TrEMBL record:
Protein name: oxoglutarate dehydrogenase (succinyl-transferring)
Family annotation (SMART domains): Transket_pyr (SM00861)
SUPFAM superfamilies: Thiamin diphosphate-binding fold (THDP-binding)
Family: Belongs to the alpha-ketoglutarate dehydrogenase family.
Cofactor(s) annotated in UniProt: thiamine diphosphate
Highest rank taxon of the organism: Bacteria
Origin species: Idiomarina piscisalsi
Keyword entries, A-Z: Oxidoreductase, Thiamine pyrophosphate
InterPro entries assigned: 2-oxogl_dehyd_N, 2oxoglutarate_DH_E1, DH_E1, KGD_C_sf, ODO-1/KGD_C, THDP-binding, Transketolase-like_Pyr-bd
Domain Transketolase-like pyrimidine-binding: from-to ranges: 592-785
Class of this enzyme: oxidoreductase
UniProt function note: E1 component of the 2-oxoglutarate dehydrogenase (OGDH) complex which catalyzes the decarboxylation of 2-oxoglutarate, the first step in the conversion of 2-oxoglutarate to succinyl-CoA and CO(2).
Pfam family, one: E1_dh
EC code: 1.2.4.2
Length: 934
């Protein structure tokens, strides 16, 4: 408002004159939080002009207008602001204080051990209100209780019930006024609790009986066995069932759940509907025939269908290792794949649920990474419901000052402005109410939401532990504390909803059901066929035949398509030059380089309706300026992808420059690939060395997921690798680690050396009916190496060569030494041998190190059966690279009686030297030693 408009409004308002101080205080409350004032006042203040400057400037300008108008009006009236008006503002501030900090006085801990600091803001005295004001009527502002005015004592009681009962709501950190108002309406409109009818209460009680009953049963039948029981957090079962049921009612078709081992067996039996007898057999050591190694029972996944008011919902509990929170991005990746398959752009049909421990959510860095991904284009899934089973102790660490540096374990969620609902697990109705609220928030705003289920752990970390040794005071209370179903049964008995006899009978009924060993979940339904079929990929090995042929005509057509872009799309000059060269390659006037052959492989696949997903920190352009699949208009910043403009109805390729993460991003892509066999899923490291940031994903999921859990996955890792003098963190993708993990044909490890090879390798990974990971040591300097080129006819009607023999016209009979190698060092060896005009050393490339291509190498070796001197040459230090891990394969490949020696860098703790001059000396030395016959 301008000065005149402001003055006119103040003078005509019934709050003019002496009440201007009141308006100013209302404005200050509004600036603190727009939801602190009523909708009427908020509209007035929202209408105030903003000149684009900082908020402080706007505050001071508007306040001065208030004060100037007040002085003029006061001179006329000779009066001051009334005490009543000042008190009214204080009441509004009290209301806002409860919204901000009421959770700190909430009754959240079932054991009563939490010692929250006293919050002065929540006292009447702090706001200059007294007992004399308790019976006075005040306007409640935006307090959504259905009445405009209330007595102060009633306002105070209402605030205590809403914000300091069994629910502690943290949401005032959210920037969006709309979201805060929505939460306020839901919390305050229900006075902080929902009203359940008798049938709903009975359902909750029976679910608590199930949760408690299973643990008691297992404890008596298998005493001392590890089960990581849910006891103390029993309300998780009604929470999950309410969440799934309501999600189905609101349109969800699939729910994917990720959780660590605490309570997992209980969730399997009492939520997903696993047969108790199957679980008992696992405890007894019985298991079905399996080719794999298997895993402990509290790591296993499960799938089932669950009846809801909106139809059956498919449930999937993700398999996961003991690396706690690492399953979260796997779940979210699986959800994204399901969304894409269902054509769900915003997360209406698929719901991710992740279940955390209190120590883990605060302590594991992948939690931050996953939160950070939640609203990005490549990884958003419409929000996750995150549940913390907060038993207030992590193994033996319980003191807050040891477990974390924040007040709550859930504070990490504030980084994405997720609302956090703390709730006392011994109040199951509050738990279910919060669950409904959380899901509705997620479905309304498509954002993450957190439920902090504050409970306790009745036993030690596992049932063999003695928790009193480290938590004596906590466990003195735990031993005396009744279980949740007893507390709730007593509550329902007092209200007349359930008789004591009925409650006891239900306990016995559940135990009888466990004795029978059949499914105990009423909502369980036989699982129907899914929209994705894995059967074509089951039981196939690497040598299965596939159609790899592409005609010269089709290659030329596609090459021209991917070399074109709209004339009005102005490219960077260097990128434009890349595309000018590609147009020459498409016409056959120039040999193909790496980037063009790779893009052409993608083109052949999308032309066959294949969906491709490629993510990485620089994947659109390529870290080394080679791919340029996403073209950026230099005039308006718009993007264009030639690969998505080949023909109508083609398969789409998605390429995203990812968040700066390895662990969560790779885990996400793993999750995606385990849920979608028909897509080509690829993750590219900025430098291959950086993949070690995702070592847990590589070790626990990628390398062993099929062995442990029978989970097929076709994820491809592109890891730039090669020694060009760029130092220890930009040389090695740690090839040796992948080879050490290689067994049981769990994946393939390739080091392609030509553009034609990368073309065939990418196509083979998708077209071959095998879904196992592909690990690729991709090049850096070879991307533009004058010898690392291919002709278009090398792409026609052939496939990937696992090994490549000598390419120069050497007389095999003159060969005295055969050098085996892999990767970039081949070109250093080849150039040096040609420069020397040497004809007595043959060079063989191993393009696939695992599974080792014994037959292909044997065919190549036919010409060298007379040779006794064989060398393995590598750039990596002797204790790294392929030498130690694959040496047995090299020995088996050479003729009987021949000798195999090593030529390469000496063993080293670091992957590479940091000085270019030293690198060059080492490189020249290893090449000389490999070629020089003494």
């Amino acid at each position: 408002m301008q000065d005149g408009v402001m003055r006119e409004w103040l003078e005509t308002s019934h709050l003019a004159g002496g009440n201007v101080a009141y308006i100013e205080q209302m404005f200050e409350a509004y600036l603190d939080d727009p939801t602190a004032v009523s909708d009427e006042w908020r509209k007035v203040f929202d209408a105030l002009p903003s000149d684009g400057k900082a908020t402080d400037t706007k505050m001071s300008d508007v306040r001065e207008q208030f004060r100037e108008a007040a002085k003029n009006k006061l001179k006329q009236s000779g009066g001051g602001s009334s005490v009543s008006d000042q008190k009214q503002v204080k009441v509004l501030q009290l209301i806002n204080a409860y919204r901000f900090r009421g959770h700190q006085h909430a009754n959240l801990d079932p054991l009563g051990l939490w010692k929250q600091d006293t919050v002065p803001d929540l006292s009447l005295d702090f706001h200059e209100l007294s007992k004399d004001d308790l019976d006075r009527e005040f306007n409640v502002g935006s307090l959504a209780v259905g009445s405009e005015t209330m007595k102060l004592k009633d306002i105070h009681n209402v605030l205590e019930n809403i914000y300091c009962g069994s629910i502690g709501a943290e949401y005032m950190h959210i920037v969006s006024t709309e979201e805060k108002r929505w939460i306020q309406q839901r919390l305050e409109g229900n006075l902080g609790k929902a009203k359940f009818d008798k049938e709903q209460q009975k359902k909750i009680l029976r679910e608590l009986i199930s949760a408690d009953g299973l643990e008691k049963y297992l404890g008596s039948k298998f005493p001392g066995a590890k089960r990581f029981s849910l006891e103390g957090g029993d309300s998780l079962v009604p929470l999950l069932k309410a969440l799934i049921s309501r999600s189905g009612e609101q349109g969800a078709k699939e729910v994917v759940i990720g959780m660590a081992h605490r309570g997992r067996l209980n969730v399997l039996v009492n939520v997903l509907g696993k047969k108790p007898q199957d679980l008992f057999d696992e405890f007894a050591g019985k298991h079905g025939e399996s080719k794999g190694s298997g895993d402990v029972k509290y790591h296993m996944g499960f799938s089932s269908d669950f009846a809801t008011p909106g139809g059956d919902v498919h449930l999937a509990l993700a398999f996961n290792p003991s690396h706690l929170e690492i399953v979260n991005p796997v779940v979210v990746g699986s959800v994204r794949a399901r969304m894409d398959r269902l054509g769900d752009k915003v997360g209406e049909k698929v719901l991710p649920i992740t279940i955390h421990g209190d120590s883990a959510i605060a302590g594991q860095g992948v939690v931050q990474e996953t939160f950070n991904m939640s609203q990005t284009r490549a990884y958003q899934v419409g929000g996750s419901v995150r549940i913390v089973v907060n038993n207030q102790v992590g193994f033996t660490t319980s003191k807050r000052e040891d477990a974390r540096s924040t007040q709550y374990c859930t504070d990490i969620a504030k980084m994405v402005q997720a609302p956090i609902f703390h709730v006392n697990a011994d109040d199951p109705e509050a738990v279910v109410f919060v669950t409904q609220l959380a899901l509705d928030y997620r479905n309304t705003f498509k954002r993450d939401v957190v439920i902090d289920l504050v409970c306790y752990r009745r036993h030690g970390h596992n049932e063999a532990d003695e928790p009193s040794a480290t938590q004596p005071l906590m466990y003195a209370k735990v031993k005396k504390h009744p279980v949740a179903r007893e507390l709730y049964a007593e509550r329902l008995n007092e209200s007349g909803a359930v008789s004591e006899d009925d409650a006891k009978q239900w306990v016995q009924d559940y135990r009888d059901a466990l004795d029978k060993g059949e499914v105990v979940v009423e909502e369980h339904r036989p699982m129907r066929a899914h929209s994705v079929d894995w059967s074509p990929y089951v039981g196939n090995d690497w040598d299965v035949e596939y159609d790899y042929k592409v005609s010269a005509k089709k290659l030329k057509e596609l090459a021209e398509k991917i070399s074109q872009y709209p004339e009005e799309h102005k490219l960077n000059s260097r990128v434009a030059k890349v595309y000018q060269e590609r147009q020459k390659m498409a016409k056959g006037d120039k040999a193909l380089d790496w980037g063009f052959a790779e893009s052409l492989a993608y083109a052949t696949l999308v032309d066959k309706d294949v969906h491709i997903r490629l993510t990485g920190q620089d994947s659109g352009r390529g870290t080394f300026f080679h791919r340029h699949a996403v073209l950026h208009n230099q005039e308006d910043g718009s993007t264009y992808m030639p690969l998505n403009h080949i023909r109508e109805g083609q398969g789409q390729i998605e390429i995203y420059d990812s968040v700066l993460s390895e662990a969560a991003v790779m885990a996400f892509e793993y999750g995606y690939a385990t849920a979608e066999p028909k897509s080509l899923i690829m993750w590219e490291a900025q430098f291959g060395d950086f993949a070690n940031g995702a070592q847990v994903v590589i070790d626990q999921f990628l390398s062993s997921g099929e062995q442990k859990w029978g989970r097929l996955c076709g994820l491809t890792l592109l890891l730039p690798h090669g020694y060009e003098g760029q130092g220890p963190e930009h040389s090695s993708a740690r090839l040796e680690r992948f080879l050490q993990l290689s067994a049981d044909h769990n994946w393939s490890v390739c080091v392609p050396t030509t553009p034609a090879q990368v073309f065939h390798m990418i196509r083979r990974q998708q077209l071959r009916p095998v879904r196992r990971p592909l690990i690729v040591m991709t090049p850096k300097s070879l991307l533009r190496h004058p010898l690392a080129i291919s002709e278009m006819d090398e792409l026609e009607n052939t496939g990937f060569q696992n090994a490549i023999g000598e390419i120069d016209s050497l007389d095999p009979k003159k060969v005295k030494r055969v050098v085996l190698c892999s990767g970039k060092v081949y070109y250093d060896l080849l150039k040096e041998r040609r420069d020397r005009e040497q004809d007595d050393v043959a060079i063989i490339r191993i393009e696939q190190l695992y599974p080792f291509p014994a037959e292909e190498v044997a065919d190549i070796m036919q010409d060298y059966q007379h040779v006794k001197d064989f060398v393995w040459c590598q750039e990596e230090p002797q204790n790294q690279g392929a030498w130690y891990s694959s040496q047995h394969n090299f020995w088996a490949a050479i003729p009987s009686g021949a000798q195999l020696t090593y030529r390469g860098r000496d063993a080293s703790a670091a992957p590479a030297v940091g000085y270019l001059s030293e690198h060059n000396k080492q490189q020249q030395k290893l090449v000389d030693e490999a070629l020089t016959i003494k």
